[in-house]
What we know:
The chain is mainly alpha-helical.
Amino acid sequence: MRSPKPPLKDAKLASYGEMLVRCLMKAFDKPLAAHGIELTRPKVKAYRNTIKTPCGRFNQKRAPAFYCSATRTIYWPMSSDDGPEAYTYARLGYVGMIAHEFGHHLQAASGMLGEYGLRAYRTKSRSKRYLLSRRLELQAQCFEGVFLAVAAQSLELSSNDRYQLRIWHAYTGDEDPPSGRKPDHGSSAAQTRWLNRGLDSADFGRCNTWKAKKKSVK
């Protein structure tokens, strides 16, 4: 595995993220409105150290970004693109990461995120809560793939880009590292599977993780 590409300078993270969000809105605003889903443009906030939000306190670890539906904001820790296994390994890593968080914004706009929260609150089983979390995250992964497919021409998406994204997600699964992750995002294999489903279909309808068999969302 080669070294990651030089990451964006911290001062440029928020503006670059906002540019990507505008592109996502342009791609999906009107098509989703035709189905009764009204989108507002989420904000992007890059931060150092920790930040307190209505969704909790976020630090520089655990995830490359966080979405909070209460503020309709993607929170972007500035150090998340600095490590040797960061998403900067892939040419479209930044795009994929923002598209995934935008996927959570779509879930919020459609009511799925609220329903997830209600179900997770009602269940007392930790394993069932983790299963619900994986369904949520893997659907956002599939939504990411849909955007990459829709924007493939303008992004000049290549087979090498898909390979790089697959290698990146080989390091983001619940199994890596075994002692440091909770089983709440899905294995690397599951993440790649649902990303590819979105990429190959360019269809949100193919992203129904809620009715998928348990073995496909492990």
